[in-house]
From TrEMBL:
Pfam family, one: Acyltransferase
Protein name (record): Phospholipid/glycerol acyltransferase domain-containing protein
Chain segments carrying region Disordered: 593-613
Annotated source species: Triparma retinervis
Gene Ontology terms, MF aspect: glycerol-3-phosphate O-acyltransferase activity; glycerone-phosphate O-acyltransferase activity
UniProt entry keywords in alphabetical sequence: Membrane, Transmembrane, Transmembrane helix
Chain segments annotated as transmembrane: 423-452, 473-498, 504-524
Keyword Transmembrane helix listed: yes
Entries under SMART domains matching the protein: PlsC (SM00563)
GO biological process entries: phospholipid biosynthetic process
Length: 613
C-alpha cells in the first residue's frame, strides 16, 4: 500500500477525499466508480478508501499485460474475460429491416429490431443466441435474441431506444461479433470474497474513456448484488465513487475522490429477479438506474466539453477570494452543470437571448485566456486599463514612495515588488533542482511522454467510445516509470562502478539516496514552474500586440462576474433545491434533470407524473 501511496504523491499534486463517512465501517462493500483514468482509477480508489482492502474486477486483457497484471495479482484482483476483447469481424454486411416490437419514443426501453444479412453472412453457423453484434460506427453492441426467420439469413436483436441505429434502413454495415462469455466462475470468486467480508471494486461502464458523461452501465454489478442476496443472504451496500480529475493526463495534476451514500437492494424485488425473463431484466435495470443516479451524484457531468468548460469558468467567476475546498468546488460545479442542463431542458434548447449571449461571452473570455496562455486566477493580479498606461514598474515604485500611499497604490506596489521576487525565487528553485532534475527526472519525463502519446494514439484508434484518449496518458506514464526509473538508477550505479574510482560504500549511499534526490528535484521544479506560470502575464505584456488585450481582461472579468450574479439571482429560484438548499440530494436532483430532458409526451414522463400524483 505504501508503494501505491508513493505513486500518487509523485504523480499528483493534491488528492482530496470527501464522503468517507458514507462508507460502512464493517462488512463487505461493493464500490462502483466512473472509469476516467484507466489503471490509475484502481490505485486512487484503493488508497483513499479508509479501513477497507479492495479487490478489483480487472479485464483479462489488462491482467495479461506485464506490470499491470503483476500489480493486479498482488492486489488480489479477479480477471474478467470481456467479449469486446475477443471481437471478430463478421462476414458480409447487415441492414436494418424494421422495428418488430417496442416504442422508440420511450427512453430507457429496449426495442426488438429485425436486421438482415447480406453478401453471405450465414448467421446460423457464425452466431449463437446470446452473442452480440456491433455495427461499424456504433459504440454499443446489440444482443442476439433470435437467429433466422422463415429460412431467411436474419437476426432479431435488442437495441436501446436511445440508439439511432434502428432508424437507418438504407445503410449496409460491416459488423463485429462478440461471442457470449460465461462469467459464472468470476461470480463465484467474487461471492466468496464478499462472503468473507471482503470488498470489491467495479467500474460498471466496462472500460475507461474521456467523455464528459457516463457510458451505459453493464449489468454485471446488478447480477453480483442479486446473486449475493439470493445465494448467500447478503444485502451488500453498493457505494458510488466519483473519481474527478483536473488536468487529466498531466503530471502533478489534482484529483477529488468523492464517496456517495450507499445503495441497498430492495429485498421485495428478489422474486422478480428469480422469475427470470423480462421480470429479471426489469429489476436489474431498476438497480442499474439507482447506481447510475448514485454515480452521477459524485461526479460532474456535462453534454460536451464546451459545456463543461462553461461550468468551470462560471465556478471560478462565482468564487470569492477565500480559499475554496474540494467539497465546495464539487458542489458549485454540480450546481452550475445541473442548473444549466435543467434550463436547457425547460427552454427546449433555446435559452433566452441575454443568457445565450452571456454564455457566448464566457466562451470568448475562455478563448482569450487560452490564446494568451494565462489562467483565470492570474487575471485578478493584473492592472486594469484605467491604471497609468505603460508606466515602468520602477517609476511607479518611486512615485508611490514619494507620496502618501493609498490602498490601490499599495496593491500596485506589492505587485511590482512581487515580480522581481518571483524571478529570484524561480532562479533559486531551478538551480536547486538542476542536477537531480536533469540526471534523474528529465530522461524519464521525456521518454514517458513519448511512450504514453504512442499508447494514446493506439488506444484511440482501437476504441469506439474515446474522444481523445486522454484517459490512457497518465496510466501509461505510471507503467513506464515503474519499470524505467529503477532501470535508470541501476545503470547509473553500474556506470559509477565501471568508470569511476568511488568506493562501494559511496556508490551504495548515492544509489539509495537517488529516490530522495529525484523527489526533491520534482518538488523544486514544480515550485519553479509555478513562478514561471505566474510571470507569464507580465512577460506577455512585453509584446505590444498582447499588451492591450491583457490589460482589458480584468474589466472583462469584472463584467462577467456581475452578469453571472444577476443571472443566478434571476433564474436560480426556478431551479428549486439547487438554489435554495445548502445540502442537496444530488441523486434526486439528477433524476429530476433526467426527467426534464425526456420528451414531454413519452410514456416514461407520463408514468412519472402518475406516480407523483
Amino acid at each position: 500500500m505504501v508503494f501505491f501511496h508513493s505513486i500518487l504523491s509523485i504523480f499528483f499534486k493534491e488528492v482530496e477525499i470527501t464522503g468517507l463517512d458514507n462508507i460502512p465501517r464493517d462488512g463487505p462493500v461493493i464500490f462502483v466508480g466512473n472509469h476516467a483514468n484507466q489503471f490509475v482509477d484502481g490505485i486512487m480508489l484503493m488508497t483513499t478508501c479508509a479501513h477497507h482492502k479492495v479487490s478489483f474486477l480487472v479485464a483479462e486483457k489488462s491482467w495479461n499485460r506485464r506490470v499491470i497484471g503483476d500489480i493486479a495479482f498482488a492486489m488480489g484482483a479477479v480477471p474478467v474475460a470481456r467479449a469486446q476483447d475477443k471481437a471478430k469481424r463478421g462476414s458480409g454486411k447487415v441492414k436494418v429491416v424494421k422495428v418488430e416490437h417496442g416504442d422508440p419514443s420511450a427512453p430507457g426501453t429496449s426495442l426488438k429490431v429485425r436486421i438482415s444479412g447480406l453478401n453471405g453472412c450465414n448467421f446460423a453457423t457464425s452466431l449463437n443466441v446470446g452473442d452480440k453484434v456491433r455495427p461499424e460506427g456504433s459504440s454499443a453492441a446489440f444482443k442476439v435474441l433470435e437467429i433466422g426467420a422463415n429460412g431467411e439469413d436474419s437476426l432479431l436483436v435488442e437495441v436501446p431506444s436511445e440508439s439511432s441505429f434502428y432508424n437507418d434502413t438504407s445503410t449496409e454495415y460491416n459488423y463485429d461479433i462478440f461471442a457470449r462469455v460465461d462469467q459464472s466462475g468470476v461470480y463465484s470468486k467474487v461471492l466468496n470474497k464478499l462472503e468473507k467480508g471482503g470488498c470489491i471494486g467495479i467500474f460498471p461502464e466496462g472500460g475507461s474513456h474521456d467523455r464528459t458523461d457516463l457510458l451505459p452501465l453493464k449489468v454485471g454489478v446488478a447480477l453480483i448484488a442479486y446473486t449475493a442476496l439470493d445465494k448467500r443472504g447478503l444485502n451488500i451496500p453498493i457505494v458510488p465513487v466519483g473519481l474527478n480529475y483536473f488536468n487529466m493526463g498531466h503530471f502533478r495534476g489534482r484529483s477529488v475522490v468523492e464517496y456517495g451514500e450507499p445503495i441497498y437492494l430492495d429485498p421485495k424485488t428478489l422474486d422478480g429477479y428469480l422469475a427470470g425473463g423480462d421480470e429479471k431484466k426489469a429489476v436489474c435495470n431498476g438497480l442499474l438506474k439507482k447506481i447510475e443516479d448514485g454515480m452521477r451524484s459524485v461526479i460532474v457531468t456535462a453534454p460536451d466539453y464546451n459545456t463543461l468548460k462553461h461550468v468551470h469558468v462560471a465556478r471560478r467567476l462565482w468564487k470569492r477570494d477565500a480559499h475554496m475546498g474540494a467539497e465546495e468546488k464539487q458542489d458549485l460545479n454540480r450546481r452550475f452543470s445541473l442548473g444549466l442542463q435543467q434550463l436547457l431542458a425547460k427552454f427546449q434548447g433555446n435559452l433566452p437571448k441575454d443568457l445565450s449571449d452571456f454564455l457566448s461571452r464566457i466562451k470568448l473570455y475562455q478563448a482569450e485566456l487560452e490564446d494568451l496562455g494565462i489562467k483565470d486566477y492570474q487575471v485578478k493580479t493584473l492592472d486594469t486599463e484605467d491604471d497609468d498606461d505603460f508606466v515602468e514598474p520602477t517609476q511607479r515604485i518611486q512615485r508611490s514612495l514619494s507620496y502618501p500611499i493609498d490602498e490601490k497604490q499599495a496593491e500596485t506596489l506589492m505587485k511590482d515588488v512581487g515580480v522581481p521576487y518571483r524571478i529570484l525565487h524561480m532562479m533559486f528553485t531551478i538551480t536547486l533542482a538542476l542536477i537531480p532534475a536533469v540526471l534523474l527526472n528529465l530522461p524519464i519525463g521525456l521518454l514517458s511522454t513519448l511512450y504514453a502519446e504512442r499508447k494514446r494514439k493506439k488506444a484511440l484508434a482501437n476504441s469506439k467510445v474515446k474522444i481523445r484518449g486522454m484517459d490512457v496518458l497518465l496510466s501509461e506514464k505510471v507503467i513506464f516509470c515503474i519499470v524505467m526509473v529503477p532501470a535508470l538508477w541501476i545503470s547509473y550505479a553500474i556506470g559509477a562502478i565501471l568508470f569511476t574510482n568511488l568506493d562501494y560504500t559511496t556508490i551504495t549511499l548515492v544509489f539509495v539516496s537517488m529516490p530522495i534526490f529525484s523527489y526533491v528535484g520534482i518538488m523544486a521544479t514544480e515550485a519553479g514552474m509555478v513562478d514561471f506560470k505566474d510571470l507569464k502575464p507580465h512577460i506577455a505584456k512585453l509584446y505590444p500586440s498582447k499588451r492591450k488585450r491583457i490589460r482589458a481582461l480584468p474589466r472583462m472579468r469584472l463584467h462577467l462576474v456581475k452578469e453571472l450574479r444577476e443571472f443566478v439571482k434571476e433564474f436560480g429560484p426556478t431551479l428549486g433545491e439547487l438554489y435554495y438548499q445548502k445540502d442537496v440530494d444530488w441523486a434526486k436532483v439528477q433524476r429530476l434533470t433526467t426527467k426534464l430532458q425526456s420528451p414531454p409526451n413519452s410514456p416514461k414522463r407520463g408514468a412519472e407524473k402518475k406516480k407523483e400524483k
